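Folding problem:
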Amino acid sequence: MANACALHILVKTEKQAADLKTQLDNGANFGALAKKHSLCPSKKRGGDLGEFGRGQMVKAFDDVVFKRPLLKVHGPIKTKFGYHLIKTLYRS
């Protein structure tokens, strides 16, 4: 079974996610922005979701983590929870 480790920032609006993505593209610290802005409890860990298996997250999230390039920030990605910025650290 495929596993991965990812960080994410969850916000309510696509605009807020896009603004945060711009900050990240300009060198802002992912963990610091997650702690300040994310709506997910993982914000306490800088957005770190730890390791999880394929199929454990909603499909749109899973597709990013398991199909898109590693160590790049992807998003905004819309799910039923809001808009995510996702950075996959590794997958096996």
